[in-house]
Sequence to fold (385 residues):
Amino acid sequence: MSDIRDEVAAGFTEIYGSAPLGIWSAPGRANLIGEHTDYNEGFVLPFAINRRTVVALGAREDGVIRVASAFADEVAEIAIAELSPERLRDWSAYPLGVAWALGQHGADLGAVPGVDLYIESTVPVGAGLSSSAAIESAVAVALNEVWQLGLDRQTLARVGQLAENKAVGAPTGIMDQSASLLGRHDHAVFLDCRSLESSLVELGFAAAGLELLVIDTGVSHDHATGGYAARRASCELGARLMGVGSLRDLSVDDLPRAREVLDDETFRRVRHVITENQRVLDTVAALRTEGPLAIGELLDASHVSMRDDFEISVPELDLAVETAQANGAIGARMTGGGFGGAAIALVPSEGVSRIQVAIDGAFAEHGFSQPTTFTVTASDGAGRD
Ligand code: ADP
Ligand code: MG
Fold:
């Protein structure tokens, strides 16, 4: 981390002409299990990863907020008093949307001082590892501290979600921000997306001789359009037709009735969410009683459910998962919202390079672009560096 912190400080000074006041960072996340359950008020089990988005912040005398990123050429600038979702666009809608959303959660935006922000990141963008939550959470903790807002981490997670929903226009749930804000070294965040109660669950991968491999297919996704919104709509329809407020209110016992009430496609969407909620609960129980070697089948079953029932996988993700499984992975599944992005595989340490070679070979054989594979470890959540 120390090199990127130095880089960010130097980058800030180059752009704004003085040293930053401080540096904050927030991690991306991998979701161990629990996909498309968050906006159905269900359960998720993500963990913060050792790839972070780092924000350098400097104070200003006036009420202007400026934001720059190594990711983009231009510096975006707006008067804090004029922040509104309609005025924000492109990548700067993420950090500036957070500033606006803090106002929606009680910050007096008429009274806070201006700030300059500069952002760098080691979280791959659009890979399903939530570079979006990383940038939101890093900016949220920085502004929360500098503007002395005293908001707790659950509230900051809602702030990030509000920014993404309203300023960016992506109808995503609360999981990613929660993982980025609440994560802890060697632990996953078990989150009830209805109550927002969370607890940490020890992963113990290293102690069990395991590594968590991420296979970034390079197939890009876009949450603001298309399939993601369509899946949300299917879930809402399913809940309505089943007479419940959200799919969280259904369990595997309701599946026979769902089969009768719903059309085939809606039924399969609903079955994914119901069974995925159960798999999250089973994974937490398995980690707590038996340890990580016991969760492989649950990861595998989650992938099948996303591929066949929720239909959010792509051939590259299926190939990554199948190749990992065939070459000694304990379990594997696509992770994130789907339609591209990354898969994860839980792999014996000594098998990592063999699986990487096998996946590269399989992708070449199928004429797919080479994926990027790397291991991640469960890391601490957002904070001041
Ligand atoms: P994911 O969260 O899976 O990486 P998203 O599409 O949700 O993908 O979010 C990616 C978007 O977030 C980028 O296209 C960009 O607009 C914004 N973003 C993420 N990281 C940064 C960064 N370091 N600097 C500027 N914008 C960023
Ligand atoms: Mg995202």
Observations:
- Residues 130, 132, 223 surround magnesium ion (ligand 2) (CB under 6 Å).
- The first helix runs from residue 2 to 16.
- The mean pLDDT is 95.
